[in-house]
Every structure is written in structure tokens, then in C-alpha cells.
Amino acid sequence: MKVIVNGEPRELPDGASVADAVASVTTAGSGVAAAVNDEVVRRSAWEATPLRDADRLEVLTAVQGG
Fold first, then answer.
1. DSSP states along the chain
2. Span of the secretion signal (predicted)?
């Protein structure tokens, strides 16, 4: 299936979850947030939240700096 991840088309296997997609774009262990179709998905629900063809996923990573 094709989903949009951070504005870029990405091919993922059918049945991929938010957790699968996040793992494919970041190695950060913490400080990561995800939203599907403009709705924030709690980290505890990533594994159980399937993506569907044409979904829009935004993966945000917090960075510290100044």
C-alpha cells in the first residue's frame, strides 16, 4: 500500500501499523510523536493502529537545542 509519510510517498506492506511506519523513518527511542490524517495517535496505540492506503502519517521528533 502507498501512504504519505512526512509529505513523501512511501510503499508499506499491507497491514503495516503506525509502529512499523515510524520504525522505518526514525531510530529515535523517545521524543517521537505520530499523527495519522491529522489525528495524534498515542504511542501505546501505535502497534494496534493499522495504516490504510492513502493515509497521511506525520512523524515528529523532538530535538533539544538553542
1. -EEEETTEEEE--TT-BHHHHHHHH---SSSEEEEETTEEE-GGGTTT-B--TT-EEEEEE-----
2. none
Q: Are strands 56-61 and 2-5 parallel, antiparallel or unpaired?
A: parallel
At 63, which amino acid appears?
V
Please name the fold of domain 2-61: Ubiquitin-like (UB roll) (3.10.20)
Q: Grid cell 511506519 — which residue?
A: 21
The answer to whether the beta carbons of residues 9 and 21 sit under 8 Å apart is no
The residue with greater pLDDT, 66 or 57, is: 57
- The per-residue pLDDT for range 3-20, each reduced to its tens digit, is 999 999 999 999 999 999
**Residue position matching grid coordinates 522505518:** 24
